Each structure stands twice: as structure tokens, then as C-alpha cells.
């Protein structure tokens, strides 16, 4: 496996404290490397000059010829050892929001410079996706309304992860067609998933997890049609949002006394299942395209801690999704509102696949 | 004097929505320009791909061949007109912490790209004035309840940027004490801010911007106390959230017929001012410590487009904050709900300074 040593720049630019900005700039221009390392008299790295620092100098009208580099250098410098992995160097860059990391040996002497550009350009540098293939035991997951984008997306992601997926629909024919398609999609990338199909009322019977990827308006009818298959020990996931277009063309929420998830909860709790609200703000368009990674947070709300934990585990099994505990089911309302806000922002900025992260 | 037109890159890289990351990368590699402009089908600029975005894609194991550019592009894009001064372009870069600004003509068509590198390399580009953090003219900003953390934070950030700050309080003594403290804080980092103090009812009179950093319960009393100073042309910023602790110890929202911001709007609109909701989810603890950078999104909601634009500009003047247009004032309700959700998540994960970003 490639390490930092393999792709670091070895003929990096160096200046020492007291050198002028002009000196650093000349070296950067001549070498076509956008960074210069600043050393102190003991050859220890104390700063970096980047194009950004030069811009700052210009903005402050610092004369390049007479201003010493220490006036504008960035510090402290982030360093890495030469035998570190490429993943580690990426982590350092992403976490510190920097594009260059100084490479040092065991005596803290500078031996190179690793840049974001070098990593991007290195075709052999494969970053291993942290897909945990060990998902623990597989769950039996019924996806109600599983023929839509959101349902298909979850089926693909969890089917790929080894779970047993049951695609539910009001039309058996439709469900079978979609199940076949999804199996085909996963077969084409070398996965043999367990994806079956059935009527909504049938697939819920054996399911441990029931995902309602249905419109808000169908909640009552749907629950009446599956109620005979509901029982204790099951978890219902509600990503349902009562979206409503306003007169002004803005997306909004149909305001009710309670949220969609709380409605599901009140209607089904007497029969046994727990309800957990999740997946509201994950763009369905991304979800349904297995080649698209998903780099979002999924906030989960629910009253039963155990069920919430199971759902959070299922979320964390989809690469790059981060489950966050959003408290009790009462907070599902916020998640539903948030969906309409995200849709509006996505439209405004022409980014339909918008999602969010807490930082 | 040189303008943006003289040093912009005219043969910039372009991709359109739906193009792959690989396509953008190829163009960047071939041209030796580190940035690609993303256009929509109407040739409007909707994003930028930088080396940083490519690194992110690599870190997330996004396949370059099949992932469309919109998945990783940076947005919204900062633009400048071609006859603007070099100083202006530097200001935009420094304030937004970006290295590239897209140059547009009067029809908002992309005509070029101006980079930090080009500015640094342009020897004829003499910067006459030291670039301050303020873009355009300073505003007169009254901060009502300005003695709290949120108020002090905004005063520091905008005071540093050159705006004229009026700290308002019910107690003149308190307001004066805090104003002196804030001046001291900024003096210690070499800034001479314009921060004054007064009674709430006094400071609003001359203010162009009035920020209500007050508890929900004080809205009515406060507005009654300042109403004689309100008039047309003023903008009221409402970050107010009707927070309420639930019996279970979870943070929640006191549910009313309308949001706090809408309440402010209804009470003040007859007197002239516009109301804009903003700053709900920016952690006050971070805001009030000037040495802490803020890397968050600020969603702004309001009915008057012009006022919203002014507030978004004021937000973008605080380094690393990104304003996002969240639509009409009706959406303030979502922002208020979101605050309680963020507080709960922050507590759960022991990160009181939690905020969020749309991606």
C-alpha cells in the first residue's frame, strides 16, 4: 500500500526566518509549487507560506522585498511522518482545512511536503471505503411503498449490506418487477442480495423493520391495510413528510396537531410496534443510485431507546451516513419541517441533492 | 488603474451539471488551472470545483467517472463584475476565505475567473488602501439585549469589520460597561472599533439594523419600549427562539400560532421596519469569542428581498459564515425548531458549540 513517502514532494521550497516574502514568492514561481516551508535557524519547520498568505500580504500592502516571511506565514504547521498512510494525510487535511501537510522524519526534520493535489493526482492511491461488511446479524426489512425512489434506494443500500429485503406494494406485479430490477442492479456490481417482493399486507408479517416510504396522505389507508401483520418487537421507520406546495410556489408543511411520525405511532402502538422517525433529509435521488455515496447526517427521533439504537445501527451500515440521536419522537416534527426547508434551499441554489451535517 | 478585467483568466474551465468529476479533473489537469466553473443548462454559474473538492471526493471514495460534479461542487459562488477594482476582489477573497472569484458581465454571464495567484503575480496591481474586513459601507447596527453572549458576539464580529455598533440595554450602566469591555477586547488585537452604548429606546432611533438578542418572553415589552424609534428603512433581525424545557429535560419549542420572527414582524411592520430571521443556529459561545472561527451556515428567512440581501451581506462579512436564502418569513418557524434540535443533539454528543451546514 502506498504511503506518504511515495507521493510526497521531495524538492520542496524552503526559506528561513528573516528571508523576505519576495524570496519565498520567487521560489514558488520558479518551482510551480504553491507552498514554501519556513525553517528556523535550527532547521525546524515553523511555518508555511501559501498563495493565501501572499494574497494577505498584498491586501495589507506589505512590501514583498522588505517584509520578512514571519509576518505573513501560516502557523502552526501540521506535520505527518513519512510512513503514514494516505488516508491519514487526507484526514489531517480535511480536519484542519488545509491543502498541504509537511512530512517529517522521526527526528522532526522536514523531508517532504504532501499536497491535496498530489493525492488527487495519484491514481494508485486507493482510499478504502470504510464499509463495515460485518453488519452483525441481517435484519428482515419490509419496505412499504418500496417501488418509489426512496424505497428502492434503501433496498439497494441495505440489500448490498446483506439484509433481507422485502419490497412491498399494493400491486404484487409492481413489487416483483422492482425487486427483480434491484437484484439486477446489485448483481451487476457483484453482489447477490436477498430481495423479495409481496403485497404490503403480506411483507409486514415476518418483517422486523418496516419502512414507510409513502406519501403523508396514504398513512391511514396503509396502516389499516397492514394492521393484521403488526405485532410487538417490530420497528416502524417513518421518513414521511406532509409536504405541501404553498401558493407562492415555496415548499411548506401541512400543519397538523402532530407530526406524521407521531400519527404513525398513535395508530400502530396499540398493536405492538415502536415507531422511529428517520431519513427525512436524505435526497431520494442520491439514495436510489447505488454508485452515489451519501455524505450526510441522519437525525433519528423516537421514544423507545432500544428501537432507536437498532435504526441508528442500520443507518451507520450505509457508508458515510452518520446517525445522530435527535431525542424523543416529538422532535420528528422538526425533522419534517427541516425537509421542506432543505428542499427550498436546494431549489434556490440549484442543488436538488442537498442534505445536511451538524458540525 | 487595473481592474478585474485586466488580470482575469479568460480561458477558464467549464463543466455543466451532470458532467462527471473526472471530466472536471481532466480539464483542470490539462489547463493547469486549479478550478472549474460549473454551469447549469441556462449557462448560469451554480458552483465551482476546486482541488479541495476533488480531495473531498477522493476521501469519500466517490468514483470520479460516475459521480456528477454537483455532488462535490462548492456553492454558492462568489461573483464580481469585470470593471471592479483589484481591491474589491481581494476583499471578497479574504472575507469569504476563497481563492477564486467568478467574473460576470452585467447579464450575470460568466466572462472570466480571477484567482489569488493572478493577483499575487500581477506586479502592476498596487493595492493602495489596506483592505479592511468590511465590504462596502459600514452599517449602524443596534444590538438590543446586547449585553448577552449572542449580542456581544455579533458586536465583536461586526465591530471588528468596521461597522458602527450600538449596544442597547434596559440599563444604561450595563450597556456602557459591556461596550467598554468589547472595545477593550478589540483594542487588544489592534482594532479600533466604533462601539457605543445606550438605552434600548435610544439606540434604535438612528440604527439601520436592529438585532433582537432577547428572550422570546420579552418580545412584546421590548417592542413597546422601542416603538417610537422604529421607522421605514430599518431592518430588524430576529434570532429569537421560543425555547422551552420539557418535563423530560429535553429542549423544545413553545408552540404558538406563529413563529417568534413572525410575531416581531406583525408587531413592527405597521411602523415601517422589515423583519429578517437569522442567526438561530450559530452557537453563542463561539460567537462571543473573537478568536474562534465560525464555520457554519446561517439560513435567512424574510419576505422583503432587499432586506434579506443586506442581512446576507452582513453575515458573509463574518469570516467563514455562509448565508443561505431560506425563503419567506414563514420558514422562520423551521429555523426556530431547528435550534432546539441542535441544542439537544449538542447536549447528547457533548458538543455545546454545534451548528450546521447544508451540503
UniProtKB/TrEMBL annotation, chains A, B:
<feature type="domain" description="CBS">
    <location>
        <begin position="73"/>
        <end position="131"/>
    </location>
</feature>
<dbReference type="GO" id="GO:0050661">
    <property type="term" value="F:NADP binding"/>
</dbReference>
<dbReference type="GO" id="GO:0016651">
    <property type="term" value="F:oxidoreductase activity, acting on NAD(P)H"/>
</dbReference>
<keyword id="KW-0129">CBS domain</keyword>
<dbReference type="Pfam" id="PF03807">
    <property type="entry name" value="F420_oxidored"/>
</dbReference>
<dbReference type="InterPro" id="IPR010185">
    <property type="entry name" value="NpdG"/>
</dbReference>
<dbReference type="GO" id="GO:0070967">
    <property type="term" value="F:coenzyme F420 binding"/>
</dbReference>
<protein>
    <submittedName>
        <fullName>NADPH-dependent F420 reductase</fullName>
    </submittedName>
</protein>
<dbReference type="Pfam" id="PF00571">
    <property type="entry name" value="CBS"/>
</dbReference>
<dbReference type="InterPro" id="IPR051257">
    <property type="entry name" value="Diverse_CBS-Domain"/>
</dbReference>
<dbReference type="InterPro" id="IPR000644">
    <property type="entry name" value="CBS_dom"/>
</dbReference>
<dbReference type="InterPro" id="IPR036291">
    <property type="entry name" value="NAD(P)-bd_dom_sf"/>
</dbReference>
<dbReference type="InterPro" id="IPR028939">
    <property type="entry name" value="P5C_Rdtase_cat_N"/>
</dbReference>
<dbReference type="GO" id="GO:0006740">
    <property type="term" value="P:NADPH regeneration"/>
</dbReference>
<feature type="domain" description="CBS">
    <location>
        <begin position="8"/>
        <end position="66"/>
    </location>
</feature>
<dbReference type="InterPro" id="IPR046342">
    <property type="entry name" value="CBS_dom_sf"/>
</dbReference>
